[in-house]
Specification:
The protein has 310 residues and is an alpha+beta fold. Helices cover 29% and strands 29% of the residues.
Length: 310
């Protein structure tokens, strides 16, 4: 009797294992495959290039999410470079209108480099527009718009709206003046830097991106945390509206002197540009009352008193 019970138990285990294996095989067999074009940065990171890849999926919605996950995983071709940070997460794809998708990502989508963030948005748009039935795409970061080349929010774009062939033809070098903290005086001092502008983004976005990268002078210290995220800039009537992500506050909070240096490094660097006279700070698109002891709801003008004497 006991022998029969053992045999029966073994049979049950075998059948259960077979069911699991069959279930896995069935799921694998139910997966569809599609050849898709994904867009990554070229070797010089100046434009996007297409890379063909076989993507597995179950239905139209999972295909959209699958191609985004492939973008995040990075290129297969050695000479191409990733366009999205691996910590980027797709939060949702709004397909209430199947022809017009809204792809929303977490804040890791933003790198702090305005030119790179624009190319990342273009990569998502062009990749999704390659799928059947998708005509236009909009990219957002935690429901916030990403700025276009004029500092305005990027709306819905179609594949043909993005002309990559001009990206490598518009590069030029520009000289900008940035302000960092002098280690001896704890005041701001100018640092001249030559940068490469690879598209039509406002120069103001490059200025802030370079401030976030930090100083190249060993006698100076950086004034912005490297994780600070710029969402957009918009210049109207010589006023530069600087829209930072909320981590500008958390990452740059310190002593009163440190906070003042952070604010005026931005203001004084931007007002070096001919088309900017004043600066308005926004956090996630909205005015805030203060940053530490500094009132932030008004316009900032150039502060020469915080600049170290020659």
């Amino acid at each position: 009797m006991r022998k029969k019970i053992i045999i029966a138990a073994v049979c049950v285990l075998v059948l259960a294992a077979a069911a699991v294996v069959f279930g896995v095989m069935s799921r694998e067999q139910s997966m569809l495959e599609r050849e898709c074009e994904l867009y990554f940065l070229n070797e010089s990171e100046s434009t996007l290039v297409a890379e063909t890849r076989i993507v597995k999926y179950r239905d139209a919605y999972s295909l959209r999410a699958a191609v985004i996950e492939e973008l995040i995983s990075g290129p297969d071709t050695g000479r191409n470079k990733a366009v999205l940070n691996r910590k980027t997460k797709l939060l949702s794809i709004d397909a209430s209108n199947p022809a017009e998708l809204v792809a929303d990502f977490n804040y890791r989508f933003m790198s702090g480099d305005a030119a790179r963030d624009t190319l990342a948005a273009y990569a998502v748009i062009k990749t999704l527009c390659g799928l059947d039935g998708v005509e236009r795409v909009k990219v957002t970061v935690e429901k916030n718009d990403i700025p276009d080349s004029e500092g305005e929010p990027i709306g819905f774009l179609a594949d043909e709206d993005i002309n990559l062939s001009t990206d490598t033809n518009t590069s030029e070098t520009r000289e900008i003046t940035l302000y960092f903290a002098d280690r001896k005086t704890n005041k701001l001092v100018p640092e001249t830097r030559t940068i490469t502008v690879t598209d039509q983004l406002p120069l103001a976005q490059y200025v802030i991106a370079e401030l976030i990268k930090g100083t190249q002078n060993e006698n100076c210290s950086s004034v912005l945390d490297p994780e600070t995220i710029l969402l957009s800039v918009n210049i109207t009537d010589n006023i530069c509206f600087v829209n930072m992500q909320s981590n500008f506050i958390s990452r740059n909070t310190g002593s009163a002197d440190e906070e003042e240096l952070a604010v005026y490094s931005i203001v004084n660097s931007l007002t070096e540009l001919d088309n900017i006279g004043r600066v308005q700070f926004l956090i996630d698109g909205k005015k805030i009352e203060s940053f530490g002891e500094i009132p932030m709801d008004g316009l900032f003008e150039r502060n020469t008193y915080i600049i170290a004497a020659d």
